[in-house]
Amino acid sequence: MVMRLLDAGYPVRVWNRTPDKTAAVAAAGAQRAASVAELTQQCDVVMVCVTNTEAVRDIVFGPEGIATVGHEGQVLVDFSSIEPQSTRRMASELLTRCGMSWVDAPVSGGVTGAEQGTLAIMAGGDISVIDRLRPVLAALSQRVTHMGPTGAGQVTKVCNQMLVSCNVLVMAEVFALAERAGVDALALPQALRGGFADSTPLQLTGPKMAARDFEDIKWRVNTLLKDMNMANGLAQSLGSAIPMAGLGVELLRQHAGRGFGEQDPATLIHLYMEMLSGEGER
């Protein structure tokens, strides 16, 4: 995403909790900051993309965090996938403490979408602020959709992840069944291309499942598990039933508990082959 901003001609300053991760973008022209506070002092728009709610809170409100130096007129754009209610609370706290606006803008499209600038951005916050950001976000995305007030972007991302997670779980079930029935599972993505069952996860992850090709990790089981846990929490807070997603959480938790948490979700084929055979597949 930084490379896309640089290619679009924007001056970009970067900071990372793991400094070595800024080496490639620094070589491409991004300026390194010594701390997130220093970065905030030097930027009009502060973009955050980290692993979870706790990481966002630490970067924003921790010692030398964004809130310690932020001021009115600046905008924080959070691309992370985090809890909607926590987003609303943090946005309110940031505005009260230093006057910064908060836009929750989680993304979908994976590594490929980030590299190609074709991410889908689902945004929550003040529409006038989001409209001012559109030229910058255009360098990163194919589409920015305003979903409502602060937190609405994160709710939309939860919905996105429910669809993605249940999809990839069913895919693993399908590929395992097809193999057991003597069908060439490698041919399934091509056979289903363009039909109602087709999807981006099917075309990207399906061949990896069929070929047992797990080396190139583009996303992780633990990421899906985190997001599905958020889906369960959101549903419980609203009294909404999500039985399929609830089962998905249990299956993902079972798979992660067997050592696959940091592996690609394509490895879910192991879980279903084991269920079908009654013995572990290695």
Percentage of residues assigned to helices: 40-55%
> What is the N-to-C succession of helices and strands?
HEHEHEHEHEEHEHEHHHHHH
> Low-confidence spans: pLDDT under 50, at least 5 residues?
none
Structural class determined from secondary elements:
mainly alpha
Strand order of the largest sheet: 3-4-5
**How many helices?**
13
Number of strands: 8
Give the terminus-to-terminus CA distance. Answer: 36 Å
Overview of this structure, please?
The chain has 282 residues and is mainly alpha-helical. The protein contains 13 helices and 8 strands. The strands form 3 sheets. A 3-stranded parallel beta sheet has the order 3-4-5. Strands 6-7-8 form a 3-stranded mixed beta sheet. Helix 5 links the parallel strand 4 and strand 5. Helix 8 crosses helix 12 and helix 8 crosses helix 13. The two termini are 36 Å apart. The model has no long low-confidence stretch (mean pLDDT 94).
